[in-house]
Design goal:
16 strands, 14% strand, 659 residues, alpha+beta, five-stranded mixed beta sheet, Immunoglobulin-like
Length: 659
């Protein structure tokens, strides 16, 4: 076997080992990931698309307050074609990021050889933040392979020696650029990189290519304008950009020092638990900081070589790599938008490639200076690299083990596998409906409502409710499941008589996080008395009482019992006035009722409204209650109906008992 064949086999074996490590870190224990509001909302859009329910033209909101473009939703629809279990979508993200490690090797190998390529691929494979950004259903976690493909096709299409068929790489690059930028706004930094690559290769372009590039640029500007019009036409405020004035910030440099080195991954343990995590691992901060400085040095070395180098491909590629690294730092150092660590995901491969190039070239030069010690120098370099990689892996694995077994408030959320245990228990009952009792019923703002809307997507009816204010008594509990969240129990149960209590199944989360409870809802009694009021919305008021503050209440409370024959035609708000004997108002409370689409026949809904502490209960004589809805932004009162079904006022007065 020839020497070159042996080296090729060693290279492929090393690459396979690196990809194995990358795969284990990104695909291992897929249930050990966060699944919170953003993940659930993105998944809901993708799953609706996969099931043919909708075709989204915008994604979920971004960290700067405007919605993302829909490409991330379209991509996540692919795994959701297979299953509604978010584990499949999580593995999809991991696979794409293993591909990103392979593409990093390919790109470095094409221009700088096997030593630089294997070094870059290994550093990317074990990078703690790269791993963290590979294990979650986030739009930005999809970026790495698309960024690498965009840059790679650009280098081949614009910078390499012209040859027949090169135009295909140019077209592929422009298509990938449009796609990648729409996955997440952080990839906007690729646009000036593309312009720079085109500028470096402009003299090699034929006239016809220059003409169609101009046409594409014009089309791109028109598309950008259309996108802005689409957003503003939907009432989306783009004024977040630069609203605090334009200036400079060091945030991007600080975030760079984190994401490329692995520093401060302990932040995922949260402000209360990170010290406990740090006690379980060696302090890698000095080593990681040194690594960060070496990356900066590698970038400066590449910039210097490009500056002094002769015109040609090596010089062009080095300039492109440096620009790939530096442009995001420049763009996000201007305060046109808030900056977050994940905005620097696109530059991570560039950092590791530059380091790999510098390390391989420095070791090769040392080997030429001391040829007798060349093998020893190479062995020491490889050993240092492997030890550093091992420490990075240790740190990452230790973090995941910690967050899996410890509550991390303000850090890593409840692991998905804990939620899936609850999901399996609910689905095992083949319910025809689930009531999710949490802190809100709005899937756009409440985490529990959104998470369980997704996790129980295959249940015919899922109805979230604010368990602090509402509870349901079912006329036919068979086939209905009540799911109570830990957040509800932590807030205190104002309607404990309608909760699971100790009945049903209990699913404990990490220590200190509480537990989910799964049971059948309490049965509804059938009142013999006529309702206190019937509203033209279809809601029937069955009971109304005023009580002093309880242990879990902020003040005196109004307790109501409602029923309806089915969903209400519109959402309504309840108003309740406390009146004295002369009819003077002592206090009042307005609160949205349970969304009208969730009401169902055969159920009794309990509702609690908290009054201000200042309401003097000793003088209260009457409760006045009514409903209103909003039409064109204005409140419209519902009518109370008499026994013949005719309007008889817009509220009902209920005298209070003197007992």
């Amino acid at each position: 076997m020839s020497h070159s064949s042996r080296r090729a086999k060693w290279e492929l074996a090393s690459l396979a080992l690196i990809l194995l490590v990358a795969g284990l870190l990104r695909l291992g224990a897929p249930g050990l990931t966060e699944f919170k509001l953003d993940e659930a909302r993105l998944s809901l859009l993708a799953l609706d698309m996969a099931r043919g329910e909708s075709f989204p033209l915008l994604g979920i909101g971004s960290s700067v307050g405007i919605p993302n473009m829909p490409v991330s939703v379209w991509l996540f629809a692919l795994p959701y074609l297979i299953s509604s279990d978010p584990t499949v979508a999580t593995l999809f993200v991991g696979l794409l990021n293993v591909l990103a490690v392979l593409l990093t090797w390919w790109l470095a190998r094409r221009y700088f050889g096997p030593a630089a390529a294997l070094t870059a691929a290994l550093l990317y494979a074990v990078s703690p933040w790269a791993v963290i950004y590979s294990r979650k259903i986030w739009a930005q976690d999809l970026l790495p392979p698309f960024v690498l493909l965009t840059v790679g096709t650009g280098l081949i299409g614009w910078l390499e020696t012209p040859r027949p068929g090169r135009w295909r790489w140019q077209v592929a690059h422009l298509i990938l650029l449009v796609l990648t930028v729409q996955i997440h706004y952080a990839a906007l930094t690729l646009i000036p990189l593309t312009l720079g690559m085109i500028g470096l290769g402009w003299r090699d372009l034929p006239g016809r290519t220059r003409r169609w590039l101009g046409a594409i640029a014009l089309l791109g500007l028109l598309s950008l304008g259309a996108g802005v019009l689409l957003m503003t036409g939907r009432g989306i405020n783009l004024g977040v950009f630069g609203r605090n004035g334009l200036g400079l910030t060091a945030d991007a440099l600080y975030h760079f020092s984190l994401v490329v080195t692995g520093n401060e991954i302990h932040s995922l343990a949260g402000p209360q638990a990170f010290l406990a995590f740090l006690a379980t691992v060696p302090d890698l901060t000095p080593i990681q900081s040194l690594f960060g400085l070496l990356i900066v040095g590698a970038a400066l070395l590449a910039a210097g070589q490009a500056w002094r180098g002769q015109p040609g491909l090596p010089r062009r590629v080095r300039l492109a790599l440096v620009a790939w690294l530096v442009l995001p730092l420049i763009i996000f150092s201007i305060t046109w938008t808030p900056t977050y660590p994940h905005y620097l995901i696109p530059l991570m491969p560039a950092a590791f490639i530059l380091f790999g190039v510098a390390a391989s070239e420095v070791l090769a030069r040392l080997g030429r200076v001391w040829p007798r010690q060349a093998r020893l120098i190479a062995a020491l370099g490889i050993a240092a690299l492997v030890v550093f990689a091992g420490l990075q892996v240790w740190n990452t694995v230790a973090l995941h083990a910690f967050v899996d077994s410890h509550a991390t408030p303000g850090g890593f959320g409840t692991p998905l596998h804990d939620l899936l245990d609850v999901r399996r228990a609910v689905l095992a009952q083949s319910p025809r409906g689930v009531l999710v009792a949490g802190l809100d019923s709005n899937v756009y703002v409440d985490q529990d409502a959104a998470v369980w809307e997704l996790l129980l997507y295959d249940v015919p009816v899922v109805r979230p409710l604010d368990g602090r204010q509402q509870a349901i008594l079912s006329g036919d509990p068979a086939g209905i499941v009540l799911l109570e969240t830990p957040a509800l129990h932590a807030s205190g149960l104002a309607l404990a008589e309608a909760s699971c209590g100790e009945a049903g199944q209990r699913f404990d989360l990490r220590p200190g996080e509480g537990a989910y409870r799964v049971c059948a809802p309490p049965a509804a009694d059938t009142p013999d008395a006529a309702p206190l009021a019937v509203f033209d919305t279809g809601a029937r008021l069955l009971g109304l009482a005023l009580e002093p503050a309880g242990a879990a209440d902020a003040g005196p409370v109004v307790r109501m019992r409602w029923a309806a024959d089915g969903p209400l035609p519109a959402d309504v708000t309840v108003f309740c006035h406390v009146l004295d004997a002369a009819g003077e108002r002592l206090g009042q409370v307005d609160s949205p009722a349970w969304p009208g689409r969730f009401w169902a026949g055969g159920e009794v809904q309990l509702q609690v409204l908290a009054l201000p502490d200042s309401v003097p209960l000793e003088g209260a004589a009457t409760l006045r209650l009514g409903l209103y809805r909003f039409e064109n932004g204005l409140p419209v009162n519902a009518n109370v109906l008499d026994s013949a079904g005719n309007p008889a006022g817009q509220w009902v007065d209920v005298p209070l008992s003197k007992d």
